[in-house]
Amino acid sequence: MSDKEEFVKRILILILIALFPVVSNAGPAKTADEIVAASDAVRNPGKPFSLSVSLLEYREGSVQDKMLLTVYSKADQNSGQYRSLIRFIEPPRDENKLMLKNGNNLWFYDPESKSSVRLSQQQRLMGQASNGDVVTVNFHKDYKAAMENEETITDADRKQRKCYKLNMQSLNETVTYYRIEYWVDMENDQPVKGKFYSESERLLKIAYYRGYQEELGKVRPTEVIIIDGVDNKLVTKMNYSHYRFQEIPEDWFQKEYLPRFKGE
Amino acid sequence: MIRIWFPILTAALLSVMFTSSSGLCVQQDEDLGLIPDNVLSQSAEEASAAEPEKYRFKVYLDEAATANIKRKNLAVPVPSSNDSGWNNRLSLDLKAEMDFSPNLSLIMTDRLHYLLEENQEESGGRVQNDLKEVYVTGNSYSFLYLDIGRVNFKNGVAVGFNPTDYFKKNAVSYRISEDPNLLRENRLGVLMARAQGIWEKGSVTLAFAPEINQDPDTWWTDADSYGLRLDKTNNNNRFFSKITLNAFPDFNPEFLYFFDSDRSNFGTNLTKGIGDAAIIYLEWSGSNRPDIFAQSMTEAEESGTIPHNSPWVMDSGRESHFQNQLAIGFSYTEKVNRTTFVEYHFNEAGFSQEDWDKWFKAGAEARTLLQNPATEALGLGMLGQLWTTRKWSQEAQEPLSRHSIFIRTFWEDALIHSLDLTGITRINLSDGSFFAQPMAEYHLKKNLTLSLSVNLFIGSDETEYGSVNPMGDIKAGATYYF
Questions:
Q1: Which of residues 217-276 of B touch A (CB under 8 A)?
Q2: pLDDT digits (tens, 9 = 90+) for B25-75
């Protein structure tokens, strides 16, 4: 074998070695959008459900505010996006106030004044947590994802997780965040971390997903820790509990129903 | 030569393998360091489960002490002026909901006031109870709802003036604030039967509110402490209908028809989101009606407040013609969570600048007549008419002036945590006078809120807001939630 033939042979072997990890992952690789959809399925049960949410707002490690909410969510059959009805439980001054998100319509109902006011996506009702943080959202319906690379990152429990790092660009202007950097565990599609940006590329929030446990037939995150991107001494902890599948009538997602809601 | 290149190519390929998409890079996550340890270690605060509750109650106590700022010179004197320098209000608010079955409930809201004013200390003040709502609500066929009783039924998408809020007239029993939000919390419901169907694509609402016998001094008309004042909220037979369409994404128009006193009203409510921070909205109503002065005089004659067939002090047409009411505006939310509503209000039946000139001219004539004992009664009668109109517009909750601007800004967690700031302004576009209300609320505890507000009516003597007494007040309050 000549030197030239030897060289070609070695190059071929190297190419095979280089391709080996890809080939060994038998079956078609998931696209970035499919990964986001799979991680959405980890966060959100496929059927209508309700859960309780507690929000604890910390400044420099001290609790400065607390809210309790109940969230009722059901996917729209046409758009696939979730609609959410949120009932405020605490603090007492906000008890029984309601927030409805149906598509781009966001309504706030105050039972004291019996009035419904339409809100913009930007308006926050829950301290530093945006409405978009609390309502159920299928990211893959609102964002176009691109694979950036694969990274091993440390999750909020200080464990190393091998993740896909995805860059998600919003598909419409009414979403809460313009762009998201999103880390999804390669093994189980669990979201690990997200960095959320405004249109001007300002970092708005960093979120860590943790407290994974079995809820409604799947291991799901029960805690999200949100670090404010501007004032990073401000941290919000959201805890999810009392998950349950629940039949939710369609009229619950109509503005006209809000005065009739009894908190079933 | 080849032997030299081989290791270099190998190194390059391996380097590509471990840095490109097929490889994994390890990132030291500095963001984690931003989370304090106790945030990670503190156990979760469990929210309550979403279990159905058969009985639901909400009770709070609201205290407000007000010091009035008197106006020294009034262009048009008030005939029966309340010259109190201060007042105090303590209110106990209760809301109760009871489920008799999954489809049948009783709703009741009540507010009990203890009111004390300067010069009333010896009498010990007075008690006033407002039974705001008491009605039975039932549901059948999953989409159909029926309500019977006293219902507080609010309509409209605007904030400062709601042309389509057809049951607002005479509904505020005690004017606790100039803030339209707070006024809505203190309003009496209307005795009615209401049916509503709610579907995925929209809803239909029908309501009938009967006229209640106007006999005075009965338990349902008594304006004293515990009377229901149904004569005020139900002084006519009224019919209401509304269709809401949810057929379009991000656009849910409402169309309304209201029949009152032989008069048909048509209305619409429209809202639309613009980007992620702004909402535009429009609320319109139109009906055949007389001008505001003629309407207030006619109703005052009917109720006996002013004598029948007495000459009106303002030249105002009694004839009805189609007149529009409009509130059009937008809301904008800034990144700091400060939301501002800006609205233009148009009330075609309201006062033009020419009407205001007539109002002040009649007031000046009445003032002259007061100087002479022989004509004093005539002067007082004229002032009675002039101020009846202003009171009417306040009770009807519609702007007295034809063109005005309303601005409301709400800033949550402003400057420091738990401090909410609200600013309200109404500007008369004809004379430039305005009302301003800055208000601060501080949530001292999760169930205790302290508040401080200032109301100011600013303008020269012969302007809408410059002719009001008192010229303002300072109010300190506290609300405790049980």
A1: 244, 246, 249-250, 252, 271, 273, 275-276
A2: 455 578 888 998 888 887 766 655 556 678 889 999 999 999 999 988 889
Closest CA to B305 of B236, B383, B195, B229: B383
Chain B partners within 8 Å of A251 (Cβ)? 142-143, 198-200, 203
How many whole angstroms separate alpha carbon A173 and alpha carbon B250? 13
Given a cut of 70, whether residue A8 has pLDDT beyond it is no
* DSSP classification of residue B237: -
Closest CA–CA distance from residue A36 to any residue of chain B (Å): 17
CB B441 within 8 A of CB B418: no
- Kindly report the CATH number that applies to the domain delimited by A32-260: 2.50.20.10
Tell me which chain A residues have a C-beta less than 8 angstroms from the C-beta of B29.
153-154, 193
Interface list for B 320-359 with A (CB within 8 A):
331-335, 337, 339
Which tens digit of pLDDT belongs to each residue from B363-399?
999 999 999 999 999 999 999 999 999 999 999 999 9
pLDDT per residue as tens digits for the range A177-189: 899 999 999 999 9
Indicate if the pLDDT at residue A141 is higher than 50. Answer: yes
- The stretch A70-83 carries a mean pLDDT of 89
Going by C-alpha positions, the residue among B482, B479, B468, B474 that lies closest to residue B75 is B468
Could you tell me the residue ranges of all domains in chain A? 32-260
Sequence-ordered list of residues with C-beta below 8 angstroms from that of B87, at least 6 positions apart, any chain: B65, B66, B68, B115, B116, B117, B118
pLDDT of A114 higher than 60: yes
Range of the structural domain that residue B462 is part of = 61-481
Strand-pair partners of A213:
A220
Q: What is the CATH number of the domain that holds B449?
A: 2.40.160.10
Q: Is the pLDDT of residue B13 over 50?
A: no
